[in-house]
What we know:
Number of strands: 5
Largest sheet: 5 strands, antiparallel
Structural class: alpha+beta
Amino acid sequence: MIGMITGQVQSLNAPVACVMTAGGVGYEIELPIPSFCQLALGNTVTIHTHLVVREDAHSLFGFIDKPDRDVFRKLIKINGVGAKMAAAMLSTLTAAEIKRAVDQDNDVALVRVPGIGKKTAQRIILDLKGKLQEFGSDEMIGVDGLFVEDGFDNSMQMIAEVESALIHLGYKEKEAQAAIKATQSDQITNTSDLLKAALRQLSGF
C-alpha cells in the first residue's frame, strides 16, 4: 500500500496532479477538489494516499489532510460507495460536514453530492453512525486557508480549472458555466474561493 508521497508538483489537470518524487518516479494522483486547490506547480508537497486496485486499473487517490483520507477509507467500505463517489463527497463536503450530516440523519445534505441518491445517502448514514467521532469539529478538518501560488491564477485559467472540476464531479457543462457566472465577483480572486462559491450555488446553499 502506498500511504504517503512527497515530491514536486509537475502538472495539474483538475482533479489530477502529477507528483515527482526524489527518486524520479512521477505519480498521477486524483484528489478531492479542496486538496487539489492547495497545490501549485513546482511546490514540494506531502500527500496522504490510498491505492485502489481493480482488475482494469490501479488508481491512486490523495489528500492533503490525513483525516480526509481516513473518512475516504470509511466511505469506500460502504456497499454502493466507490472511490469516485467518496472523492466527490469530499470535494463537496468537508469531513466535519459529513459527520454532522450523519449525526443529524440529514440525508438531504448528502443528496446534494452529485451521484448520490436518497437510498445511498440513507445507507451512508446508517453505516457511518457512531464511526466518525474523531472528526468532531470544522477546526480539525476545515479547508480554510487554501492557497494558490502568486501568478498561478489568472481569470481565464481560474474559470477553466473550476469548470473542469465541476464537470468531473458530475455536473453538466451548462450547469457548471451557469454556477461560475452567478458567483463571479471582484471579491473572488483564486480558484479555491470560486470553486467553493460555485458548489454552494449548485447545492442550493
